[in-house]
Amino acid sequence: MFNKIFLKKIISLGVCSSTLLILSTGSVFAGDNEVRFELTDNPGRWFDTGTSVAGNRSIAIAAPGVRVKFSGNSNTVHTRTSLIYPTGAANMPFNTKPRKGGDDVTLTTPGLYVFTCSVHPYMFGAVIVDDPKTTGLDLGSSISLVNGITVPSSSDLATRLLRTFFIATNPANWQNYASNKPWHVTYPDVDVRVDIGVVNLPDVLNARYGNDITLSALKNPKTPAVGEIWVATQFETTRNKEKPGTVSAIDGSSWQVTRKVALPSIDMNNPHNMWTDKNQRVIYVTQWFDSKLTVYDRKTGKLIRNVSVGESPAHVMTLTDSDRIHVTNNGDTRTDSVMELAPLATQVLRRVDIGRGNAHAHWMSHDGKTMVTPNVFSGDSTQYNFHTDDIEAILPVSSPFGHPLATGMMPDASKYYVANLLDSTIAVVNMDTHKVMKHINLIKNYDPVAGTITGPIGALPIQTPVSPDGKNMVTANTLSGTITILNTNTDKVVAMLPCDPGCHGVQYGAKQGGGYYAYVSSKFSNRMLIVDPDPNNDGDPSDAKIVGAVGLFAASTTQKDDAIKGNPGMGGQGILPIPVVYNGWVQNLPAAWSSQLTPAQRNPID
Predict the structure, then answer these.
(1) In the chain, is it the N or the C terminus that has fewer CB atoms within a 10 Å radius of its CB?
(2) How many CB atoms sit inside 10 A of residue 322's CB?
(3) Signal sequence span per UniProt (predicted)?
(4) 3-state secondary structure of 587
(5) Residue 216's pLDDT is what?
(6) 426 with 475: CB under 8 angstroms?
(7) Predicted pLDDT of residue 27
(8) Do 178 and 553 meet the contact criterion of CB atoms below 8 Å apart?
(9) pLDDT at position 541, please?
(10) What is the pLDDT of residue 515?
């Protein structure tokens, strides 16, 4: 009887027929009151109910007391973490260790619950627990994030997060620059109950953020780049693979996609981040939803080797003095979670103990001495000395659930920066005194309730490298869809540029004739932005601007090792410009690459 009342309410709200199909077939109500999510490696439907609601397979509607069960069909480990939940809800926050097995939680308080994986924080699944006696689907009067932030459910932050959920979990909602159609985001046509009453969900989201938006035309920069740019197009699918992901090469002179590397022979799974050897001959790429570091030939795209390193390998870098490779195992809770490999990954040498597990985007110093890691689960950062094989410091850099995700380092190793995803802050750390000098609040100019913006903002920052000459830092901010520019002399944000949904990856490469470009990728878009952080070369990055935007989808001339099947050019994450021009690496370049650089680029901090 209770489920019949609930079903009657759903029908009266005009929920689409696919939602009714969920209810009637039992995908939501398996047994009495149960929701099942299968965690997968598949783009968009990482938390998969098996049934679509308005093109979305990651959302379910249920009655209070619902038992939410999580199972796994992934090649790596995941957490089940309550990213968003009704303020004060029973059994919240919910957070598991990373594992492949099953978990469950019972939800009794009406409202919106969004689950994520703390290892792969764009994986989303949502449950709306609805009281059938009220009108409108209940989102709760206020929502809380796992790091303690609480806002009204009608606030701009709440609806911005909800919009991000619907974009991330439906590939049809991603920005497609290969099409001339306006960008349309589809939302379930339902009424929802928030703190100010009952409102229509798409009416609110469309009024606040627009829809059917004309995408700007792609544009090549006027000045070419030195070399090429490799981008992890992590969500692109190909014909002869079960798992998603390619790595795409862009020529810096023509700005054309010249090669797609899918590696179907190993079913390369979600390639995430790349680096190269000192001769720039091979590409190292991590398989983030797997356990492998893959090595392939940069010129031919041919597989060289596929090495087991541990769960959810995220980032890879080399030491400048030895060319040894270091990989962070993002899913590994052990304190020795960084793997050291011989040059060219011919063998695994050892596990490096950084005192914490679950490191993500580390950075290495110019002299091969120091590594800094953001430790995602523990809200801190490790500074490790390779010359003494010792931990120099472990420093708190965020709130306990602030999610330190990425680092950038000054080219003289005087200080480093840690991007804290959920806190929307950047910690500045003195590498000599091992003290946090300051926290840069990237959302101080943002009112999370009204949505007003009075200056540069960067909500949910991800990659944040420092320029090779140490004069600026470019940060990709995934929620606000912005690029923030920091003046490293003052450690102040001096500019903000627009970005695409899921703004994610940043790296610097050499511009022909001098200076640098910062390349920016986005998860839910298939273009790469080219930023000139200092157009007039005066050392002041406040005039930074976007000078180009190139597509990441294949052209007729693109060389491929497998036919593209879906999500063309989508899922932009890690970026690797060739040649590597950061201080310490640039001095080791072969003459063929070094000769293409200016004297200032060859010695960026002289």
Answers:
(1) N
(2) 13
(3) 1-30
(4) helix
(5) 96
(6) yes
(7) 38
(8) yes
(9) 98
(10) 98
Phi-psi region of 414 (alpha: psi -120 to 50; beta: other; left: phi over 0): alpha
**CA distances from residue 565 to 157, 236, 289, 561 in whole angstroms, order as listed:** 35, 8, 20, 12
Q: Which positions of the chain have pLDDT values less than 50?
A: 1-8, 11-31
CA distance 217 to 24: 45
Q: Provide the pLDDT for residue 199.
A: 98
C-alpha separations of 147 from 249, 436, 517 in Å: 38, 20, 34
Number of H helices, E strands in the chain: 6, 43
Looking at residue 281, what is its pLDDT?
98
Beta bridge partners of 316: 327
Check residue 4 and give its pLDDT.
38
pLDDT digits (tens, 9 = 90+) for 93-141: 999 999 998 999 999 999 999 999 999 999 999 999 999 999 999 999 9
Of 102, 33, 31, 42, the residue nearest 75 (C-alpha): 42
- Taking residue 75's Cβ as centre, other Cβ atoms within 10 Å add up to 20
Distance CA 236, CA 247 (A): 9
**Spatial separation of the C-alpha atoms in residues 42 and 565, rounded to whole Å:** 14
Whole-prediction pTM value?
Answer: 0.95
Residue 395 sits at φ, ψ, to 5 deg, of: -120, 135
Q: What is the dihedral of CA 523, 524, 528, 534, to 10 degrees?
A: -80
Domain boundaries, the chain: 2-173+178-209, 228-602
426 DSSP β-pair partners: 419, 440
DSSP 586: G
DSSP one-letter string for 97-159: -SBSS-EEEEE-S-EEEEEE-SSSTT-EEEEEE--TTSSSEE--SEEEETTS-EEETTSHHHH
DSSP string covering 535-571: TT-SS-GGG-EEEEEEE-S--TT-EESS-EEESTT--
pLDDT at residue number 313: 98
The domain defined by 228-602 folds into Methylamine Dehydrogenase; Chain H (2.130.10)
CATH superfamily of 2-173+178-209: Cupredoxins -  blue copper proteins (2.60.40.420)
What pLDDT sits at residue 499?
98
